[in-house]
């Protein structure tokens, strides 16, 4: 699962940025060298489902200069996981967001204790 950050927005690159660009939706352009990758663990408080996701977070600018932050997961543009996360198992929105690796740690501990 995925995450990114970059600059652009009008299709122009910044001063020393290479010409490598990826197209997003609605015509925005992102520069791969300015991508930030973040990963989070999630736990649904409704059904108990846990998952981890890595995001590519891209910082863009609208033509008038206002900042725009775009999230990508597995190459697809997605809403910010921090504003209204949704559980894929039950559709619930009461989701706890934690640092990356928490779900993996809990799963490993459960597997180990069942032996």
How would you describe what is shown here?
It is a single chain. The protein is mainly β and 115 residues long. The protein is built from 1 helix and 7 strands, in the order E-E-E-E-E-E-E-H. It has one helix at 102-113, and strands spanning 21-23, 29-31, 36-44, 50-61, 67-73, 76-78, 95-99. The strands form 2 sheets. It has a 5-stranded antiparallel sheet, with helices on one face. The chain has a two-stranded antiparallel ribbon with strand order 1-2. Residues 1-33 have low confidence and may be disordered.
Largest sheet properties: 5 strands, antiparallel
* DSSP strand count: 7
Helix content: 10-25%
Low-confidence stretches: 1-33
* Number of helical segments with 4 or more residues: 1
Shape: elongated
Distance between the termini: 28 Å
Q: What proportion of the residues form beta strands (DSSP E)?
A: 35-45%
What does the average pLDDT come to? 74
The SS-based structural class is: mainly beta
Using only C-alpha atoms, the radius of gyration works out to 17 Å
Order of helical and strand elements: EEEEEEEH
- The spatial strand order of the largest sheet comes to 6-5-4-3-7
């Amino acid at each position: 699962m995925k995450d990114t950050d970059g600059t652009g927005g009008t299709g122009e690159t910044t001063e020393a940025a290479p010409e490598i660009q990826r197209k997003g939706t609605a015509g925005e352009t992102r520069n791969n060298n300015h991508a930030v990758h973040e990963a989070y663990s999630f736990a649904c408080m409704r059904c108990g489902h846990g998952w981890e996701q890595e995001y590519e977070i891209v910082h863009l600018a609208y033509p008038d200069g206002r900042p725009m932050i775009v999230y990508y997961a597995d190459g697809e543009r997605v809403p910010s996981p921090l504003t209204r996360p949704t559980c894929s198992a039950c559709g619930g929105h009461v989701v706890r967001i934690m640092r990356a690796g928490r779900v993996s740690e809990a799963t490993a501990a459960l597997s180990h204790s069942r032996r």
